[in-house]
Amino acid sequence: MATPVAQEQRTLGLTEPGRPPLRAPRTSLKLRNALIGWTFILPNFLGFAVLTLTPVITLFYISLTSWNIFGAAQWVGLDNFARLIGDKSFHTALGNTFYYAVVHIPVTIVVSLGLALLLNQKLRGAAFFRTVAFFPYITSIVAVAVVWNMLFSPEYGPINQFLSLLVEGDLPGWTVSKDWAMPAVIIVGTWKDMGYYMLLFLAGLQTVPGELHEAARIDGANTWQRFWNVTLPCLRPTMFFVTVMVTIQSFKVFDLILVMTDGGPGQATLVLSQYIYQKGFEQFEFGYASAVAVVLFLICILVTVVQFLYNKRKEA
Amino acid sequence: MNRKIMSGVGLAAVASLALTGCGGQDEPAAVDGPVTLTLAGWDFASTPEFQTLADAYHEANPDVTVELKEYPAGDDYDTALTADLAAGAAPDVFIVKNLKNYVTFTEGGTLLDISDVAAELDPATGGLAPMEVDGATYAVPYRQDSWLLYYNKELFEKAGVDLPDGSWTWDDYAEAAAELTEGIGEKQVTGTYLHSWQSTVQGFALAQSGAPLDGGDFSFLAPYYERALAMQDEGSQPSYATVTTNELAYQAQFGTQKAAMLPMGSWYIGTLVAEQESGAADTFEWGIAPIPQADESTTGTDATPVTFGDPTTMGINSGIDESKIETAKDFLAFAAGPEGAAALAGIGITPALIDDAVADTVFGLDGVPQDDLSRFAYTTHETLPENPVGPTTAAIQTILGEAHSAIMSESTPVDEALAEAEERVVNEVG
């Protein structure tokens, strides 16, 4: 390809005769293309490098020290991680994080997929209901927490007043009960997130070819069979993306818990990211907090890698 | 590359020197000529105390200007200030807002030893003694709120219950709350209101029992929790569940006459006066009484009631320019001394040093109750810190905070929750 270009250049008198102009333009063109490419991603990469990559790398170092933010960090090796093994609060936080994730991930996926299927119909006012479902996602988390806390109020809240019509006996104490605080938080978390994932599923549903449904219908497949054998397989890329996102988000849950229950009552809803905040910013044990953060990082990356491998196997 | 950075730093340094008008040749500790001190504070719009102190000091020392640097309010103040301290960018003088972080600041070497300033202060300055760490003082209190009992005289009269007379123990208080609730007889009005903070139970228990926070034994909290639970079960006060889920505000509960009594810090005097004036609170006659006591040995107006309250203190950044140290120390002595106290009292803030002039100023403000008991309650008390200075205080308070929500939400029985907290202290704090 370079030869005709060089030929042309020579005939046009662009290059001096007698010099072999073959390699130089090619490499410089390549370099120029690469430079242009880098320039385009540079603003984003700079932000990422300064605000995310550097702190993450520093985090690994700090997790091996007993840094309390002032002065130099004292190297303590793996002491912080050894301490994690015997730290009951860490165990509680780890357990609660898994509790939240294990329930929140499937429930959110099922609810948002259900909403997407429902609102993908040719329904009067579908656009309105899509907006309604998306609204919680863009509402301020603090406002959401305050309102839901009032709804959940065991004595005066409308939820328990409604439940008292249906069931006899003790009603859940929701955010002020050790057993019900986590379900309450999961309900609000699902309600808040479902709109966003619904939107992703809606976009995914547009890519399901109509012909496949038609062919399946001619073959005598009922609605359930068509959903299971046509819609779901076609949604796999979307499903994969949603699963990865909702998983990471569930393990990192922080703000919702902080404003709704602040980890309470007791430690009933204490999660890892909140424990990191507590140890780091309230008690100034940044080394130890970093060690907890490293554990959270490893959990997220492990789960994501497993999902990637599973997706790859399915793809093949 | 390195040389470039170095020359850049040099340039910046020269530029900043030129800008601030400082020459490197000036002899240190020179106080002649104008000096500018910087002071860290938060939320200046609603917290005028910093500007008040700065102005008062400037008036007394026209050569010195105190420049304020605003930080975010709430817990973010500590976070933002800590970041600045770690980066060496914090102001010359800063407020140690939360006593539980004082040790972190001193151990981090961010505070200058100002024992000489502390030694010259009036020993009656509230909260001064507990600031001493290993024989040295690194911050001095300029403001100290103490917890008092606010009561609504009109609701007491309506219920036909005798007004507090300074002789109350907590049992008398619980009894009065029950009588008030019944006597007032309105559905949404309770005898008293206990806010959701852990200090509303633990602060009193710690101060009045005399038990150490880091002694590893939390049984001193048990009677205080038993009483608080009994009171919320009886309906003498809104339950913890209602307070937290409905985000009740103590200002609204007492200010709009939903509660006849309220244990609260002395900062609420200024708030209540302002809210009654603006109409945010109802207009009614109220008073202040000493906080109820553990037993009769500290009750009555001839004794000194024991209550709690953390001082708000001020320290000097150890990274301060050497030539400014003397000025900064002088400013601290001013702020924590009688002149600073007078200036603070003028805007309704309780200074650490409460003398007669301060009491006259506070009780001279419009809307502040004029009875003798209110004045006694405001001026006479032994106020112990909620967060005794110590390396384990912050961690223990987190654990006790979680125990508080477990107990008050009635998720966990008192003994079980306290035993768990003791176990956690051994396990996590050591």
From TrEMBL, chain A:
Region (Disordered): 1-20
Record field: transmembrane: 35-62, 98-119, 131-151, 180-205, 226-248, 286-310
Record's subcellular location: Cell membrane
Membrane topology: Multi-pass membrane protein
Protein's UniProt keywords contain Endoplasmic reticulum: no
InterPro entries the record matches: ABC_transporter_permease (IPR051393), MetI-like (IPR000515), MetI-like_sf (IPR035906)
UniProt feature, compositional bias: Polar residues: 1-12
Main location: membrane
GO cellular component: plasma membrane
Domain ABC transmembrane type-1: 94-307
Keyword Lipid biosynthesis: no
PANTHER family: ABC TRANSPORTER PERMEASE PROTEIN, INNER MEMBRANE ABC TRANSPORTER PERMEASE PROTEIN YCJO
Name assigned to this protein: ABC transporter permease
Automatic annotation (TrEMBL), chain B:
Pfam family, one: SBP_bac_1
Coiled coil: none
Cited InterPro entries: Bact_solute-bd_prot1, SBP
Signal peptide from the UniProt entry: 1-20
This protein's UniProt keywords: Signal
Gene3D superfamilies with a match to the protein in the record: Periplasmic binding protein-like II
Composition bias, Polar residues: 295-304
SUPFAM superfamilies reported in the protein's UniProt record: Periplasmic binding protein-like II
CDD domains listed in its UniProt record: PBP2_TMBP_like (cd13585)
Region (Disordered): 292-313
Name assigned to this protein: Sugar ABC transporter substrate-binding protein
